[in-house]
Each structure stands twice: as C-alpha cells, then as structure tokens.
Amino acid sequence: MEMKIETLEPEGLARPGGHYSHAARHGGLVFTAGQLGVRADGSHTADLGFEDQVRQALSNVLAALRAAGAGPGDILKVTAYIVGVENWPRFNAVYAEMMGDARPARTVVPVGELHYGYLVEIDAVAVGGATGAREGAP
Predict the structure, then answer these.
(1) What is the pLDDT of residue 112?
(2) What is the mean pLDDT of residues 66-73?
(3) Residue 87: which CATH number?
(4) 8 Å CB contact between 47 and 107
(5) Quick check: is 90 in a domain?
(6) Residues 109-119, buried b or exposed e (16+ Cβ, 10 A)?
(7) Disulfide engineering: 73 pairs with which of 13, 20, 96, 137, CB 3.0-4.6 Å?
(8) What whole-number distance in Å separates Cα of residue 129 and Cα of residue 40?
(9) How far apart are CA 124 and CA 121, in angstroms?
(10) What is the pTM of this model?
(11) Is residue 18 part of a domain?
C-alpha cells in the first residue's frame, strides 16, 4: 500500500510566501513549515515586540497542526530560531504559557537574522494521521 504525502493549507493562515505548503502529512506524522509572525491577512508583525512575534508564530504553527487534527499534546518536536540569545528567556516564557502542559522535545537556535526583520521562526513535527489526532489530545 503506497502512502502519499498530503500537503495542507490551513484556514486562518496567510498564503505561503514561496513554493511550499504550511504543513505536510505522511502516514501518522505532520511537519510544519517554519512559521513567522505573519497574520492571516498577510500583514507582518516584525515591527512588534519579541513576545508578540512569538505568540503569532506559535499560533501559526498550532493553526497548521489543527488542519491535520493535531494540537499541542500531539507535538513531538519543536525547533525555534531566535535572533539574539538574550531573547531565550522571553521565548521560553511565552512558549510555556502557550503550550501549557505539552512538553515536546525542543531545540532553540540563536541566529543572526531572519527574513523580513523577524526575531523568531518556529516549526514543529507532530502526530496527526489521516484519521486525526490521537484520542484525548487537545
């Protein structure tokens, strides 16, 4: 039985700015593209503070996962790219607030700069098979 890669274009997210999908699913795994703090209408939050950018970028990741029937409790791995290692504690505080009890594996990578002047970009890998998220997931 051949399993195909399914691309997902979730509601509530701006159109991708390039040749990619916001999320792709294969088998029981969902992979999100790196999400910046772009609002659903395509406007940018790069001029806002770091915490606001984290909230929008993580909200975009969660919206991409919802399209596959997954939520925070289904996330296996998160990678966050942040401009400036000094922003790490601020990232961690917003991340903990938004993720609640979910504690997926995580990597935070300090970088020099990101596209459009953003200070954070986040992607994730989650469980979210064709039949939806596992029982009891948020």
Answers:
(1) 94
(2) 93
(3) 3.30.1330.40
(4) no
(5) yes
(6) eeeeebeeebb
(7) 137
(8) 25
(9) 11
(10) 0.89
(11) no
Helices (H), 19-73: 50-66
What band does 1 get if pLDDT is binned at 50, 70 and 90?
A: low
Count of C-beta atoms within a 10 Å radius of residue 101: 7
Q: What average pLDDT does this structure show over 82-89?
A: 96
User: How does 54-65 read in b/e, with b if 16+ C-beta sit within 10 Å?
Assistant: bbbbbbbbbbbb
pLDDT tens-digit map of 9-32: 888 899 998 999 999 999 899 999
Query: Which residues is 81 bridged to in the sheet?
Result: 109, 121
| Paired tokens of 105 | 């594996």
Domain assignment of residue 98, yes or no: yes
Between strands 105-111 and 75-83, the pairing is parallel
Domain count, the chain: 1
Domain that holds residue 60: 6-12+23-127
Residue 44's closest CA among 120, 109, 99? 120
Task: Tell me if 136 is assigned to some domain.
Answer: no
Using a 10 angstrom Cβ sphere, with 0-12 exposed, 13-18 middle and 19 or more buried, the burial of residue 107 is exposed
CA distance 112 to 30: 28
Asked if residue 60 lies in contact with residue 38, where contact means CB atoms within 8 angstroms, the answer is yes
